[in-house]
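Components:
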Amino acid sequence: MPSRWRVVVSHAALYLVAAVFVAPLVYMLATSLKPAAEVFGSPPRLFGSELRWANYREAFTFLPFGRFVLNGIVVATIGTLVVLLASSMSAYAFAKLRWRGRDGVFLVFLATLMIPQEILVVPMFTLMRWLGWVDSYQALIFPWAFTAFGTFLLRQYFRTIPDEINDSARIDGAGLVRVFTHIMLPLARPALAVLAVFTFINYWNSFLWPLIIINSVDQKATVPLGLQLFFGQQGTQWNLVMAASVISMAPTTLLLLVLQKHLIRGIATGGLGGR
Amino acid sequence: MNKTKPLAFGVALMVASGLLAGCGGGDSSGGTEGADGTVTLTWSMWASGTDDRNAWQQVADEVTAANPKIKITLDTAPFTDYFTKLGTRLAGGSAPCIVSMQSLRTGGYTGGMLPLDDLIAKHGFDTSDFDKSIMAGLASGGKQYALPYDFGSLVVTYNKDMFQAAGVAAPKIGWTMADFESAAKALTRNGKYGFAAYPVDLYMFPMLLSRTGAQPVDDSGKLALTGDPMVTAFQWYADLAAKEGVAPKVPGVDNNFPDTQFLNGNVAMSVNGPWSVLSLKKQAKFGVGLATIPAGPDGTKTYSAGSGFGISKSCAHPEQAFTAITTMTSAKVLGELGALGRAFPARAAVQDQWYNNAFPGAKEVIDAANASAIPFRTTADWDQVTKLLTQYGVQAFNGQATAANVLQQVQQQAG
Amino acid sequence: MPISGTRPRRGEGRAAAFFAAPSLLGLTLFTLFPVVMSLVMAFYHWPAVGARTFAGLGNLSTLFEDAVFRRTLLNTLLFVVLYLPLNLVVSLGLAVWISPRMKGRRALRVVFFLPVVVPMVANAIVWRLIYQPGGLIDGTLHAATGVHAPNFLGERGWAMFAVVAMSVWQGFGYNMLVFSAALDAIPEHIVEAAQLDGAGPVRQLFRITLPMISPSMFFATTMTLITSFQVFTQPFLLTGGGPGVDTETLMMFVYNQGFSVFEFGTASAAAWILFVLILGVTAVQFAGQRRWVTYDA
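Structure:
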């Protein structure tokens, strides 16, 4: 029966496809180690005459790239914390507390998920001017920290936690806040992890909004905006740009590798409509 | 219920601090006054890379050294973004006090900038040492809007090593279009090209001016791209890449394309201004030479442009800002910038500093170029024009649209 | 032993208000308020600098009379029509291919998902290098055959395809994971029953697999449709909307109007047109759901 052969060939082909697929990223890595003059070679080679690790150091001195990384980390971390706090609190209100109009308000909440960023960017810019937040860290963090997505995700998860646990704690004398902090949050750790990872990646990779709102680019730019700066220079140094690009993908790739189980589960459950 | 208090505090604090933080940090009259009378002014400037930024930071420090009660906070942006954002900044209340301005764009920003004539008269500031053409370039409607720090005429930079390897004679002052074309052809070999052609304003229009005398802006200041001389010249320029093959194909929108090609040793010639000497010297791994723009039927022609520092209308401390810009354009500072190669000084007295540190033979070329230069004038919406020129122009360079077609599109949308 | 009884109901309204406050306040300030503002702006001439005047439906007519706007509308539709099927076919195909229990499955999933978490700017930068004359494709082709590759990003007829190809590469990993999870959830016994009945792999695919994962397909199609209408970063960084306006999308038009020309009125109007378009298409999706999506009982 040739089916065994077929399976082996099929698997080999799949690995080949994966290798071709990841080639651009490998190319990015390889170019980041080339000396400047060898970036465009004919025929193109994967590696230059030397492995120039100095490119990574130079990427930091050519532009204030370290500053961009710092900005990215600060913005993404604070943003994630804000999102986690706000979303978990409101998810608790919608999932576990009983109050009039709860489900109606939640529907309105959900409806706002439909509102796309393109509608929001222009008025958001005007709002930032009114608040005096143009070209500030607050503008990078807060406008996008209050979407209903986190609440939606966490509410789904909170609902799977049995009411009995809460009830017995309440009867034992615990207040609502204590139930929230000592029971709900710890039990919801997997969902919080998924939300945290998604939020961090979104903040880290965000490009359009920083492009619009940041004026003092060399001080407040985040990494994607900073990467683009390499193109504003006299003579694009492709090898340095590649090195900076590799650095820019490091945190999110690391998160992906370390937390793949959570990410995949998050997508899987989110993808099935939150069943 | 008492347990909700700490959490409530936390949340309230979070929201409040978010809003309050905005009110404090967002204030931008461009300057603040400290308790001891020290004034801190913001100064916005375009810069490319850390070296560039450090050069400007040095200038900012000089201001404080000469005037201890004035401190400068420098904020830089890449050139391509600087002017796009300047318009809203000037009107939107987040304008810096000291505004860097380019001569060719002055006309578009007079609404937000303070005319300096009164301050010049009040302080008895002597402007006679500044080059006349750049003073005029930074003025509009009879009012002076900025004090110049540099100016320069566009010239051709060439790769000496490539010329030698191909056995082509180095360009002389006043060389003609015919010389240029034959040199470009001879230098296009072994996968390299003779010239980098790209539809970016400062690099392209001097060549067109010399070729047929065509100018993008007519005498009344309106965009005029569709006249015959302009179309012919643009077609010739685009054909360098599309038909003649002496210039590489243009890969879509990439404003660094000519510089990158030149520095990589991919093309032998490119157009540039004296302000690039710093990075050219640093980055080029070959000998760099300068030549005048090739002469057309009416002799060699070129454009001059330059930059300076002005004051925004919304600046709360115009006196200190004026003092600052007089220091920033002083002979001492300009001499230092010239020595660095970052700027060709607008003050005649210190121009030697630039010459001493530039390439051999540069002085003659620069002098010849300056002698034949006219100031580059643009429209108020020049940012739009340059964007459209590159977006549409690329097609002409790839032979997929005619010059007439491209220019008409740009004229229609921005004219 | 805890006595199970009714939970205290008094006061939960107040507590709920406290807990939901940050989200609700944030949502109101940063979403509801801007949406309303955006709608209002769409009916005004609202320059970023200067006085604003009421325009009524004037912005709409200005937009539809603008050849550039009409072209960006067309470009966006073209992008969606090219991108959506390609993305779905590739992600579904790979999900099915990886589906049987095989070694290194998790590693493969991670590999295909990698470009999704890499910042789009980094992706665009490396693809610029791959596409441009003298870059990877051109260099390899020239070295192997002496012929130069087309100028993918600078030539009409190629630019949009280049942008679509790069977008598919970047984005399909997400849908692949969705489909993978759905495929895993198909009960074994159904597959076995089909095999016992003698159904070949193709039959199985169309009669069993696809219907069983149709809820996920619906989700993936809808989400991908929505995000593809909003495409901005790829064309912005790869081609700048060129050559000419060949690759300028609606979202780029909104950005240009808002932050290059600084006309907030037309920018908002254009954004709303885009939004209405997306709503319409999504509504059609939901309506058609009955036809081809089977939710198991």
